[in-house]
Specification:
There is one protein chain. With about 190 residues, the chain is of the alpha/beta class. It is about 35% helix and about 20% strand. The chain is built from five helices and seven strands. Strands 1-3-4-2-5-6-7 form a seven-stranded mixed β-sheet, sandwiched between helices. Strand 3 and strand 4 form a beta hairpin.
Length: about 190
């Protein structure tokens, strides 16, 4: 896809604050510190558009980014480890669940896992939820550049077994590995 523009549009905690113009949306979700913001910045070719941090749990609201004036990327709060009070984490989880369950504009969820580690119980729970509710999604293994080819092959094989899926796309925000595959999945979802 040819990138013309990508801009931060808004942060929203509740459904009444979500954009209302019916543009299709691609959601990015995964555990805290899996690299959602880095992946989005890398895909869009815009450094620093989605804020990155070494501290897990920095994304606390749904962040909407308008791409090419035609569709949106939506960065959801990460699940799992985050330095935040329990009631705040519950609020993030509720916002993300409401979005995933209710949003008619959602055409694809990009579920990120860390290529260096086995999928967590939370990763499995999210994958099962997406499957159960019939939500179109693709699984992407981030940080693939941190592994040798043999390690990556082994880890992807194990992740496919755990998640019960035939395909996981490896990705590196550093090298761009897997960029075309993710854009292909996004374009397919936008053109359905």
């Amino acid at each position: 896809m040819r990138m013309i523009s990508a801009t931060f549009e808004k942060s929203a905690f509740k459904e009444p604050d979500w954009p209302r113009d019916k543009k299709p949306e691609i959601a990015f979700l995964g555990r805290s510190n899996v690299g959602k913001s880095s992946l989005m910045n890398s895909l869009l070719g815009v450094r620093g558009l989605a804020r990155t941090s070494r501290t897990p749990g920095r994304t606390q609201a749904l962040n909407f980014f308008l791409v090419n004036e035609k569709f949106r990327f939506v960065d959801l709060p990460g699940y799992g480890y985050a330095r935040a009070p329990k009631n705040v984490k519950e609020q993030w989880n509720a916002a993300a669940t409401d979005y995933l369950a209710q949003r008619e504009e959602l055409v694809l969820s990009v579920h990120l896992i860390d290529a260096r580690h086995e999928p967590t119980a939370s990763d499995l729970q999210l994958d099962e939820w997406l499957k159960h509710h019939g939500k179109p999604h693709v699984i992407v293994a981030t940080k693939s550049d941190k592994l040798s080819n043999n390690e990556l092959t082994r880890n992807l094989r194990r992740a496919k077994e755990i998640l019960g899926t035939p395909e996981i796309l490896p990705y590196s925000s550093v090298t761009g590995r897997g960029r075309d595959d993710i854009w292909r999945a996004i374009n397919n979802a936008l053109n359905r």
